[in-house]
What we know:
The complex is a heterodimer of chains A (246) and B (304). Chain A is an alpha/beta fold. Chain A has helices spanning 70-76, 113-124, 144-148, 169-175, 189-198; strands at 4-16, 19-25, 37-41, 49-52, 55-56, 60-66, 83-90, 103-108, 130-135, 154-158, 165-166, 182-186, 203-206, 222-225, 228-231, 238-240. With 304 residues, chain B is α/β, with parallel strands linked by helices. Chain B has one domain: Alpha-Beta Barrel (TIM Barrel), CATH 3.20.20.
Amino acid sequence: xxxxxxxxxxxxxxxxRDVFKMRLAGNTAAFSRPGQFLNIALDGLFLRRxxxxxxxxxxxxxxxxxxxxxxxxxxxxxIPGETLDVLTGLGNGFDVTKSGVHPLVVGGGVGAPPLxxxxxxLCGAGKAPHVILGFNTASDLFLVADFQAMGIPVTxxxxxxxxxxxGFVTDALRENExxxxxxxxxxxxxxxxxxYDATNVSGQYSFEARMGCGFGACMGCSxxxxxxxxxxxxxxxxxxxxxxxx
Amino acid sequence: MVDTRVxxxxxxxxxxxxxxxxxxGYGYEFAELYDINLLGSFSFKGTTREARYGxxxxxxxxxxxxxxxxxxxxxxxxxxVISQELPRxxxxxxxxxxxxxxxxxxxEYVECCAKIDQEECVGLIEVNVSCPNVHNGxxxxxxxxxxxxxxTREVRKVTRKPIYIKLSPNVTDIVSIAVACEKAxxxxxxxxxxxxxxxxxxxxxxxxxxxxxxxxxGRAIFPVAVRMVYQVAEAVSIPIMGxxxxxSARDVVEMMLAGATAVQVGAANLVNPYACxxxxxxxxxxxxSLGIHSLKExxxxxxx
Lengths: 246, 304
Ligand SMILES: Cc1cc2nc3c(=O)[nH]c(=O)nc-3n(C[C@H](O)[C@H](O)[C@H](O)COP(=O)(O)OP(=O)(O)OC[C@H]3O[C@@H](n4cnc5c(N)ncnc54)[C@H](O)[C@@H]3O)c2cc1C
Ligand SMILES: Cc1cc2nc3c(=O)[nH]c(=O)nc-3n(C[C@H](O)[C@H](O)[C@H](O)COP(=O)(O)O)c2cc1C
Ligand code: FES
């Protein structure tokens, strides 16, 4: 199987403070589930950068990335027509069959992108997801309109109250009356942990780790679970709530 | 037609390219990507007596032209390797494999080597003496000629398979250690393991790696590795598996000119999962462009 592809940038523009949307054209045959990721090689940097895929079709993928260091800064300076060496179809991704009819989908900051395709697939499977997106402040908001366009309830929370509910996603959850029977989430680890404690239903949680390879070869990302050690890059990034050890 | 075959302690390898221990698992992940039987061989993940989880996360830090890892020898332990991993590995790799053995005491090395000696699929044992010795205040067996020779002598007694001692570069005189291993009965020398390194995050002002320090490897260390292989080749007459920063067919040729009979590729597999396949496909073309008909003929060529 080939997982190494050369993608051509077709769009790369800012969508919020320090957050860019990039569209890439190329072979997406290796993708099979929402929540999988790319590992992107950048000139002059030794390790690849793992970035979740927001959505894909047969022509390419789109991603959202936040500029936090040298690699993402270089990505932000790239222009359409340039190519990227990427490893594709990485990670287990979310399983949309596990939830009931009312899944709760919770994203924090740049954890939101992989939930976009997930939510689309949940809707496609006849489910009625409720989406909660958490950000620090109003100028950080992105993807919100895309979720709303699916015609489902979307609640926004900001830590400073400049948009939506004031506080964290767990505050938005508490104020909300909508029922849910399952949780899908991706975001910073403290948010995942708070949500784990605040909900009493099962769910799937997507984690991050510093990666050496991204495809299961180096044990650089191995974490402890209730059912033994798992590689975040290959056996994850999505873990079932029942197996998580904090 | 060029000849890429080399002889390594009685084994004939189709080519000298061997993925290095810890960067290729037990081969399965790569077998999904290409036919790994085109490799000369491969060295599987370092194995200890007991199962080890290894070090806390983060275990990986980026460096200019390289990386630091502090995986800490995560492995399921020798018994599980033999009963679970090797049967699975044999389904995807049909050539003799290299067993990489680690230990924190002489007993552990001896027990692991005695057990792996019974495995038919293992063509060669690579004994990693870079790990800390629990009986010696955590100093690695690989730091002195005496302790490296002691490990060599003791494992020699329990196996007839070729034994290669894998040396650490974090020493004052690698040549004297290699010579001591040869005298103690080693069939060959593998070098180099990772260089001890460290990165500090400027924002948090803390080490990037949870364990603070880790093993530096990748392209950046290639000149250090070539130098050490060259020095050891001057002093010993047993074969050398050279490694450290190898990432192209030209690097393979350079390592062999320095004195390596076979060449291992580590970190390069992690950034390009097809690295070894690409190197092997490139080798004939590179050989032709350099006027090399048989790789065997260039081993140690730089010493003349
Ligand atoms: C499975 C997965 C999916 C991700 N999806 C997204 C996404 O959709 N959008 C997005 O903006 N970010 C995402 N991230 C985080 C993203 O990988 C990092 O922000 C990015 O690697 C930072 O690179 P840098 O060179 O800019 O930062 P630097 O700090 O200069 O990077 C130095 C090294 O640390 C690594 N690193 C730094 N931060 C992280 C981190 N949070 N997670 C893992 N490695 C890190 C880098 O990869 C690099 O090896 C994801 C991470 C993982 C593990
Ligand atoms: C992630 C990782 C894990 C490693 N694990 C082992 C190991 O278990 N045993 C061992 O002898 N060497 C181990 N090594 C060292 C490599 O086998 C090799 O000696 C070293 O990385 C130098 O080669 P390179 O520069 O091509 O990576 C590891 C290296 C890396 C990068
Ligand atoms: S990053 Fe290498 S195993 Fe996960």
